[in-house]
Amino acid sequence: MRFYNTLGRAVQEFRPIEEKTAKMYTCGPTVYNYAHIGNFRAYLFEDLLRRTLEYHGYKVTQVMNLTDVDDKTIRDSRAAGLKLQDFTRKYKDAFFEDLDTLRIERAEHYPEATTHIPEMIAMIRVLFDKGYAYRSEDGSVYFSIAKFRDYGKLARIDMAQQRSGVRINNDEYDKDSVADFALWKAWSESDGDVKWDSPWGPGRPGWHLECSAMSMKYLGKTFDIHTGGIDNMFPHHEDEIAQSEAANSCRFVNYWLHCEHLTIDKKKMSKSLGNFYTLRDLLGKGYDGKEVRWALLGTHYRSKLNFNLALCDQARATLKKFTDFFGRLKTLPEGPGGAEEARKLADEADRKFADALGDDLNIAEALSAVFTLERAVNSALAGGSWQSAAGEAVLACFRKFDRVLAVFDVDAAASQGAAELPPEIMALAERRVEARKAKDFKTADAIRDELKAQGWVIVDTPRGPEVRKA
Ligand code: AMP
Ligand code: ZN
């Protein structure tokens, strides 16, 4: 497998630390509101990565943190008049519900920041002992970026151009404000009752520290893959590298993968711009999880995805087409006809699918293998010689694709597609074909009208006449 590693700005062969094992850390949500579909684009990219690794036979250990204490959670819990835990609980629950709706496979660990404060304090102690951390007048503790020689290596910041000793206390800042960042934030009045004791006085950890401390606990000091949206690269990931490598004196992460933004009218979807849809907004408009999943998965993770509802409509039409397709395969007459040809087509499609995904998650190529198979199968079906064994070989291949794509629900869809043609309707349609063969157009037209009255239409396709719901 090969991935684009932000650290080297190149596609590189994936060499895990342990054979056929992938340990990955994926930055998770700040639970102060419902996640929007821009956030879910990042989590879906990570799901695609995880499922692709599994498809290629890797054992994956994934960690995703839940940021349940930071500037925003404190601000909004106070505004809501709730205790921090009660406030964040609601959004944690909503997050997991949304993951299920989008069929995002569960990570192995979802550590919460508030239950890992001792690990974070321990890490600050090490940074203090090694001379990387200092305490400011107000009791906050900062990381001195001038002390860490490699600072800027991920975001490619030229440190020679920077002033040293500038400090920044908020969690998120832009690339122009390269500065010492807070490891521990001293308690202030606006924090209300949110505080923990530490050797440096009461306060709470900085956001960046949480990922360094928790990744080390669950994945070790050095692990394979770290991901996030591209906006996480600086300062968040740069600061994680600084903390972890300074504390542990070894490499933190081997492969950094970042996904591009989901945009609306070419602008990044974000809470602050107010240009967002939550998943719930889309469900409210009548789309379902697999339609949204398909709409968000179809664009390569390193390209921007400009979202609009037409994408969901297209997803719906495409998935409906597959439902009918599976139904046709499920209702082929019993027998071995075409099985060998079907298996050959399926094997080739599967090989292309796996290779494409293994090549930096090339989803366009992978989907093209899926569509090519569907087209080839449809023309074979038009020949009329394929029987159930051939249908089963193709369905088995789609079940396999679905271990990564998770949109087809092959068997449920096949039964639905098949059930959509009740036997009496099928019988009528066959009688019409017979009538036409016998040039009895009067009867054929009468049957067409009869079908129409019952809510079915006959469509003449290159594959022959097909009955569809009106
Ligand atoms: P946050 O809750 O802001 O820390 O974001 C959670 C994850 O979503 C991070 O990996 C972000 O980089 C990612 N993210 C936020 N907005 C977008 C967006 N518009 N498109 C893609 N990813 C995003
Ligand atoms: Zn993080």
CATH architecture of the largest domain: 3-Layer(aba) Sandwich
Low-confidence stretches: none
Taking all Cα atoms into account, the compactness measure Rg is: 27 Å
Number of distinct beta strands = 16
Count of DSSP helices?
15
In this entry the ligands are: adenosine monophosphate, zinc ion
The 3D shape can be described as elongated
Q: Let me know the largest β-sheet.
A: 5 strands, mixed
The structural class is alpha/beta
Kindly report the CATH topology of the largest domain: Rossmann fold
Helix fraction, binned, reads: 40-55%
Intertermini distance = 46 Å
Mean pLDDT: 93
The structural domain count equals 3
How much of the polypeptide forms β-strand, as a percent range?
15-25%
The CATH C-level class name of the largest domain: Alpha Beta
The CATH homologous superfamily of the largest domain: HUPs
Task: Reconstruct the topology from this structure.
Elements: E1 2-5, E2 10-13, E3 21-26, H1 37-55, E4 59-64, H2 71-80, H3 84-101, H4 117-129, E5 133-135, E6 141-143, E7 167-168, E8 180-186, E9 203-205, H5 207-219, E10 223-229, H6 233-248, E11 253-259, E12 262-264, E13 267-268, H7 279-284, H8 289-297, E14 305-306, H9 309-330, H10 339-358, H11 363-383, H12 388-405, H13 410-419, H14 423-437, H15 441-453, E15 456-461, E16 464-469
Parallel strand pairs: 3-4, 3-10, 7-8, 10-11, 12-14
Antiparallel strand pairs: 1-2, 5-6, 6-8, 8-9, 12-13, 15-16
Helix pairs in contact: 2-3, 4-5, 5-6, 8-9, 9-12, 9-13, 10-11, 10-12, 14-15
The chain binds adenosine monophosphate (AMP) and zinc ion (ZN).
Residues 27, 211, 236 line the site of zinc ion (ZN).
